[in-house]
Every structure is written in structure tokens, then in C-alpha cells.
Design goal:
The protein has 369 residues and is an alpha+beta fold. 25% of the residues lie in helices and 27% in strands.
Length: 369
């Protein structure tokens, strides 16, 4: 009886493509024959994992499997026990596959990706800005024009790998000969060696220097966002492709506003008089002052929105709102005149309040009399 593809990968039937891919990567590494020293059970499990991924990673094949099971039109996709599995495994992990030879080098090794962090003000994150950054990175060596060899000299084929950039190891298994490939240690996978390397870059074809870039911070970017600058990373050795630069954005907090998505929240404190009688306030937004009308009888917790005064939407037009949550402040430390006015108000409204001097100290004094 054929095993269920979802059970083989250990994912739910509603798992998305990312979950399926993650499960395959983990299980393929675990059961790959090279990691299990010829264990036939691991070899069999590896093939089952790859066959299940081949079906579940293809939307049409997966839909057919969900409807018809192993007898559906996608049944034939689980065949080709070595070629198809190798293609899948190499697309994730590179190098040699099961029962096949290593690939020849495809070109110069690419440069490394770089990471850095910038700190921007709250308003700059809301409205956008241009920030200058400086990073230490590998740049092409001008002395040898990124070739890595002394001008006028030439490279020679590596004797360790005969120019392939890889060395192979052959061993016997229950399935026959197993061939694995690894980068050549003599030439570091380049396939060639330089008898006369450039003295300025020591044969690397690149040197480490400080470089400055302008980063365009889009309006609406949030704290923790990572920006990718394609081709601004390190230059690859000997003319290899350039990596990318990843810039993590950190945003300084605002003294008034707290950001929630594209909305800005502010707890607006009002004295009891303004909350009871109403007020028109000049309220300072990030765009300037606007008039905010607070109606009479406003209670703590009531919310008012200033439409379109928040953060711009990164993926579309328009902006979020400013959300004002009212907090009514009860006055403390009343003067004698203020106390008298509040008591008059209580009498007018028929409300019972504590008598003057009816505090703890007053009650203690009365008990001692």
C-alpha cells in the first residue's frame, strides 16, 4: 500500500507551499544517503520524501492527488527514482545527488551578501527619506582588473580537479556506485590556479574597502523592515557576481504617537471641565495643526479619528488615521475655592459627596475628643 504523501512529509493537508518546502528540506537532509553511510532504510525514505515533495510542490499535481489519490493523473510523477530526486535535492542543497556525478563549475563564485542597520526618525519613516550609509565590502581590484593574476600572466588548469572545480569520491552501496562531489581544495572550486597572483589582492581579484551608498527609505516603512539593495554587496572573487546588501531599518520612538500598522494612536488627556463642557482644540499632527472638536459629556475611553493623518500605505494609495483615545483626568490637590465650587456643583446636581474634613486624620481627631 502506497504511503500518503502528506504523512511522508509530516504536514497537514492544508499546509501551504512554504510548509511543504520546509518539511522537505529537513527530511531530505536527515535521510540523504551521504549522511547515513549506505543505510538502505534511509535511502528508501529519502526517495519517498523526494517523490512526495515532487507531487505536493506542483499545484496541479497536488490538486489531482487531493481528488483522486495515488491513482490520479499525477501518479506517474513519483517515478524516476534518481534523476528527478537529484534535480529537487540539488535545487535546494547543491552538489552531487544520489547515484550521479558532480556538476562542473558554472562560473566564478558570487560575492557575499552584507547586512547593516540604519536608525531613522519617526517622521522620516512616515514620510520617507534618503539615508547615507557606509559599509566595509569587497570591491574589484583595479590593479589586476578583478582577474586575480599579475597583468601579463595567465591562469593554468588546476591539476587537482583537471579544471572541473570539483573532486569526486566513489563508494559502493546496495544500489551500486555512489558518486559524490565536493569543491576542489587546491583551487577552491575555481578550476584554475595562478602561478603569479596579483600582489595587491593576493589572487582574489577583490579588495576590502569602505563604500558609501544612498538608501531610499520609502514612506510608510516600519521598524524592523529590511530593505534589499541588489548588487550592493561584496564583489565575487575574480570577477564573480556581486552579492546584495540588506539594510535593517530601526525607527526612533515618537514622544506622542504609538504606531499600529498605518494608524497612529494617542491617549489624549482632558481635564474634567473640558470633557464635561466640550472644547475645540488645536491638535498637532505630523502634517501640522488641525482643529479637534470634543463634544460635551465625553467619557474616558471614547475614540475620535482624524482620517488620513496617519502613515502612508506601502502597497497602495492613501494613509491610515490618527486615533485619539480620551482619558478624563480627575483633578487633585484642590484649592479652597475649587473645593467650594465642586461642592456647589454637587449640591446643584443632587450628588452626595464627602463632607469637608471627613478624612482619616479628621476621624482620628474626633475619636480622641
Amino acid at each position: 500500500m502506497e504511503r500518503d504523501h502528506y504523512e511522508v512529509l509530516g504536514v497537514d493537508r492544508d499546509a501551504d507551499a512554504a510548509e511543504v518546502k520546509s518539511a522537505y528540506r529537513r527530511l531530505a537532509r536527515q535521510h540523504h544517503p551521504d549522511a547515513n553511510d549506505g543505510d538502505s532504510a534511509a535511502e528508501s525514505e529519502f526517495k519517498a520524501v523526494a517523490a512526495s515533495y515532487k507531487v505536493l510542490s506542483d499545484p496541479e499535481a497536488r490538486q489531482s492527488y487531493d481528488r483522486f489519490g495515488h491513482d490520479g493523473p499525477s501518479a506517474g510523477m513519483a517515478g524516476d527514482p534518481f534523476g528527478g530526486i537529484n534535480d529537487i535535492f540539488e535545487s535546494f542543497f547543491g552538489g552531487g545527488g544520489v547515484g550521479g556525478g558532480g556538476r562542473r563549475r558554472s562560473g566564478p563564485r558570487p560575492g557575499e551578501d552584507l547586512e547593516t542597520t540604519i536608525l531613522v526618525d519617526f517622521e522620516e519613516a512616515v514620510f520617507g527619506s534618503e539615508e547615507e550609509i557606509t559599509v566595509r565590502t569587497a570591491v574589484a581590484c583595479t590593479s589586476c582588473e578583478a582577474t586575480g593574476r599579475t597583468p601579463g600572466t595567465s591562469a593554468e588548469q588546476c591539476g587537482g580537479c583537471r579544471g572541473s572545480g570539483q573532486v569526486r569520491q566513489v563508494r559502493q552501496s546496495v544500489l551500486g556506485q555512489m558518486v559524490t562531489a565536493a569543491p576542489c581544495p587546491t583551487c577552491s572550486g575555481r578550476g584554475e590556479v595562478f602561478p603569479d597572483p596579483c600582489v595587491d589582492c593576493r589572487g582574489e581579484g577583490r579588495r576590502v574597502e569602505e563604500c558609501s551608498f544612498t538608501v531610499n527609505v520609502r514612506a510608510g516603512v516600519d521598524d524592523g523592515t529590511t530593505l534589499r539593495l541588489t548588487g550592493r554587496g561584496a564583489v565575487g572573487p575574480r570577477g564573480g557576481p556581486t552579492g546584495d546588501l540588506y539594510v535593517s531599518v530601526r525607527v526612533r520612538p515618537h514622544p506622542v504617537f504609538e504606531r499600529h500598522g498605518t494608524d497612529l494612536y494617542h491617549r489624549l488627556h482632558l481635564p474634567v471641565t473640558q470633557a464635561a463642557l466640550g472644547v475645540e482644540l488645536d491638535y498637532e499632527t505630523l502634517d501640522g495643526d488641525v482643529e479637534v472638536r470634543i463634544p460635551a459629556g465625553t467619557q474616558t475611553g471614547e475614540v475620535f479619528r482624524l482620517r488620513g493623518s496617519g502613515v502612508p500605505h506601502l502597497q497602495g494609495r492613501g494613509r491610515g488615521d490618527i486615533v485619539l483615545e480620551v482619558v478624563v483626568d480627575t483633578p487633585t490637590d484642590l484649592s479652597a475655592e475649587e473645593d467650594k465650587l465642586f461642592r456647589s456643583l454637587a449640591v446643584e446636581r443632587g450628588e452626595t459627596v464627602r463632607e469637608p474634613g471627613d478624612g482619616l486624620i479628621s476621624r482620628i481627631r474626633s475619636a480622641l475628643r
